[in-house]
Amino acid sequence: MMEQVSVLNVDRLTGGYSHGKPVLHDISFEVGRGEMIGLIGLNGAGKSTTMKHILGLMTPQGGEVKIQGSTLAADTQQYRASLAFVPESPQLYEEMTVREHLEFTARAYNVSTEDYEQRSRRLIQLFNMGDKEDSLSMHLSKGMKQKVMIMCAFVAAPPLYIIDEPFLGLDPLGIRSLLDFMVETKQNGSSILLSSHILSTIENYCDRFIVLHKGRVIVQGTLEQIREQTGQQGVPLEQIFYDLVQDSKWTVSDE
Amino acid sequence: MNDLLRLRQKRRADFWSKILPYTQYVIQSGLAVVTLFLLIAFAAWYTTFLQKLPPGLPVYWIMLILLTPLTVYGTVRTYMRPADVVFMLPMEKRMREYFAPGWRGAVIGKYIWLLLVTLIAWPFYIRAAADPKPLLLTLVLLLLLKIVSNYGSWQELRINGDAVRVIYRLLRYVAVIGLLAAYLWLPLWTGTLVLIVGAAIYYGLLRMPGKAQVPWEHLIAAEKNHATAVMRMLGWFVDVPTGERKINHRRWLSFAGNRVPWKQERAFRFLVSKTLVRSELLPTLIRFVLFGMLLVLLTRESWFGVAVYLLFILLAGMQMTSLRKQHTDTLWLSIYPLPPTSQRLETVGLITQVQLLIAILIWIPLATAGDPVRIVWTLAAGLVMVWLYRSSLNRKWLRDLAAGDEL
Fold first, then answer.
1. Interface test with B, best of A54, A72, A93 (most B CBs within 10 A)
2. pTM greater than 0.90
3. Does A80 touch chain B (CB under 8 A)?
4. Is A108 helix (H, G, I), strand (E, B) or coil?
5. Cβ neighbours of residue B32 closer than 8 Å, sequence gap 6 or more
6. How far apart are CA B177 and CA B149, in angstroms?
7. Where are the domains of chain B?
8. Which residues span the domain enclosing A78?
9. What is the pLDDT of residue B21?
10. Cβ–Cβ contact B252 with A under 8 A
11. A1 lies in a domain?
């Protein structure tokens, strides 16, 4: 259940790749402790740009992003230690094996050797990577690379996970393992900001949803709240989303 | 000119247009001066060496060592790109036209160097050999062997099955080295006959295994490695994009980095140690050290040996600076909570550690003969060189950071 403490606070965030042409307009939302939030939107809606701002890879043109009450500039190392990221496309070091990726991540996040051993064993088993743990990442299939990315994030065990399209390339077992593990992680008090196009799947897992369209938050809340706001009681998320992005009432910008 | 030839020509021009702007910086980096110094020093040493040839030199072995690398190595530049496997596949039957200039260029390019090495070594050969072979015949036979070897290396890329490909690569090495040796050691006409017949048999053997018409993936990988090697070599002198890298598992070295203390500030050393042992840098360094040890062994009794020793330590350090550029663009170093100084400190630390090891290894052949005082002072100078290089690397890195070149 959502608690009052906010792990991630995005406040009136405006940003993009060039000044004068922001991609994000005045975005505000929060992720509470133990919450899983679905960030949804069409291609180009600004989901990845939002994530890049949260990760500190882009500097806001306006507004601010705080993790556990601190901005990146205020305490860079603490800020970075508070989050783990799973990118849409796996980005691994070709020269390292699966296990070495986990070890490097654990070392970088200052995870104790005991915790590392315990978590890595569990993750390798959960994601069915036992026979690949000594393979170089360059020799893995795309789905396996994605699993390594996910395992690296979870071996770090920070308070906040930023997960961008994690299901791409995963086999059905992998998707199921990930969803189960995310639920467990959430129950242990960590927070997850998840972006995905597979709305029928995340509908049952996320506590709240943020619908981004053309760089603006057009609706946010629990599924019930969104249904109320859009007047579509009992309708699945996918249908609500489809109607939202089609309906000019929600999508016309106020510029 | 047909479309495929035009395409190859355009790609070749594109590649060199990326390289050429850097050459002025390479020259400015002091390479020209060092090369000139080395040439003059070598000429002086070689002249003296020829005048007073030590008796009992293994002349045939020396010639074999000098001629083998340039005869065996046969890389063909194809300038192929990953997208070719989709867009050029429909033209597979016509690809001979695209590859032909590369085949010719590879033979001619390497043969010119082979010619140069042979001509330089020839005065030594005819003085030291009991029964030297005629120069012209030698040059013709070397050309024949070069063509056959290059043809073999191309066919290897086409062979189906990794194991068969490895066997044929070994066969090429054995054939080229064996036939060169036969020509050098056996009497003139026997040696010539063995070389020609042997080359013909090897050519025949190459026709046996099943082959792909165009080995797309191998060619793309080989081209990627070649382009990376060129950029890496440039990277010794100037900052260039490192591009794609060739990675080898080398399981026997998997322990590297595992004993780095489990501390957040040392985590980068774990990564960069893996990079060192699994990238192409390691074999390059090993070859370089072996070559350095050989040169130092040959020149150990003169001051020239000391200069060669110090130069090799410096060049080894320059080669390892590529480690600095390996991870500048990786996402994870921007996201992981690593202390901001750890990348610099750990990379420079590793380079210094390896450079120290190299300084000791290259010193060993130098320590086998000559004045003991000079031997000790040379080692001391080598260690000072390592220390100076470390300071210079740190200074340059901090300067670049201040200029905002890297995060």
1. A93
2. no
3. yes
4. helix
5. none
6. 11
7. 3-225, 247-402
8. 6-82+159-251
9. 80
10. no
11. no
User: Do the interacting molecules here have an ipTM over 0.85?
Assistant: yes
Q: Does A76 touch chain B (CB under 8 A)?
A: yes
A-B CB pairs within 8 A amount to: 68
Mean pLDDT computed over B97-104? 89
Mutate: best of B225, B264, B276, B350, partner A, most A CBs <10 A: B264
B133 DSSP 8-state letter:
P
Are residue A243 and residue A167 in the same domain, yes or no?
yes
Q: Is A205 on the interface with B (CB under 8 A)?
A: no
Same domain, A76 and A150: no
Structure tokens at B212: 């792909």
Residue carrying structure tokens 């030199």: B57
As given in the structure block, the two tokens for residue A248 are 């000019």
Find the CATH number of the domain harbouring A192: 3.40.50.300
**Residue indicated by tokens 């040059």:** B139
- pLDDT tens, position by position, A205-221: 999 999 999 999 999 99
Flag if A87 and B332 touch (Cβ within 8 Å): no
**A115-129 residue pLDDT tens:** 999 999 999 999 999
Can you name the residues that pair with A208 across neighbouring β-strands? Answer: A37
Q: What residue type is A138 in one-letter code?
A: M
Query: Of the residues A119, A140, A157, which one is the last residue of a structural domain?
Result: A157
Backbone angles phi, psi at A36, to 5 degrees: -115, 120
Residue among A55, A108, A138 whose CB faces B267 most closely: A108
